[in-house]
């Protein structure tokens, strides 16, 4: 995939993203978190469990998503 056809290269670091990736053992997995780094070689995302690097060859799809909702006790009402 070239940089022009890699949509994640347009995502600004700091946004929240979800990236669907192929797993080496087969199947797919989603990576959800804050984008730390992006480039034609892939992305690096900070998840709840730590940093995850997803190589471009493993990315199936991805998108920018809204921030997580506030915890219930902070929402009021």
Overall description:
The chain is mainly beta. The protein has a single domain, classed as SH3 type barrels. Helices cover 5% and strands 48% of the residues. The protein is built from 1 helix and 5 strands, in the order E-E-E-E-E-H. It has one helix at 72-75, and strands at 16-22, 28-39, 42-47, 50-55, 59-64. A 5-stranded antiparallel sheet has the order 4-3-2-1-5, with no helix packed on it. A hairpin with a 2-residue loop joins strand 3 (42-47) and strand 4. It is globular, with a radius of gyration of 14 Å. The termini are far apart. The mean pLDDT is 91.
In brief, what are we looking at here?
This is Histone acetyltransferase Rv0428c-like SH3 domain-containing protein. By secondary structure, the protein is mostly beta strands.
Strand order of the largest sheet: 4-3-2-1-5
Highest-level CATH class: Mainly Beta
Q: What name is given to the CATH topology?
A: SH3 type barrels
Distance between the termini: 48 Å
Question: What fraction of the residues are assigned to beta strands by DSSP?
Answer: over 45%
In terms of structural class, how would the helical and strand content be classed? mainly beta
- What ranges have pLDDT less than 50 throughout 5 or more consecutive residues? none
H-E string: EEEEEH
